[in-house]
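Priority: low. Protein: Trafficking protein particle complex subunit. Input follows.
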Amino acid sequence: MAYTQPHPRLSVLSTSSLPPSADYASPTNSSTRFSLASAPSLSNTLVGSTKATSARPSIYDRNLNKTRFTEVSGSAFAFLFSEMVQYTQKRVSGIGDLERRLNTLGYRVGVRVLEMMMFRQESSSKNPKRETRLLPVLMLIHSQVWKAVFGKAADAIEKSVENADEYMIIDNDPPIERHISVPRDMSQLSCSSFTAGIVEAVLDGLGFPARVTAHNTPTTQYPTRSTILIKLDKIVLEREELMK
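Result:
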């Protein structure tokens, strides 16, 4: 699902208040009499309502392959994510706790993204293939998963020079950070922890357990640049050695 450019810039950490409830006037007494014969039949009303409901297609009946390239409003996504962060922020004690909560929310989304991608692959391909090596799986996340969620591929994928179990996926302009305003006292906060949760769920689902975290790595050219750090489980590296 790709996201179109939203118009308003929303601050996910700003406080919001509910609109005041509307005042409803009490009905006035009326001396007009109504004939029961002219009133609509209850049974006819129910039947008509049922027919209207049954005629409207359910979201669960839609073909997932036909909605593959359907775009979702970026403004709607920005507003929804803003509400998610504000809701979570009120229930945590610090930045670390907030990032863990966002990671958990992203993990739930990642499980469903992987399920949808596997369904589309099996239904559109006669010989669906499951990747069993690490690099093809990382490239799958870098390209297909990013396109399915954000409408574009990530910018780079790198391997750590110091640690053999660490890989990094870099997004120079992550859509999830594009319309977020973070206060100075929370400058260490990375809302891309939500994206890290998606990546972690996909890796777990494909049989490559890892711990995934998000880090802000801004540059002069890309002030919202984010790095998704993947720290693989020991069993993944042992399996890679056996498959060489």
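The longest strand covers residues 210-216. The chain is about 40% helix and 10% strand.
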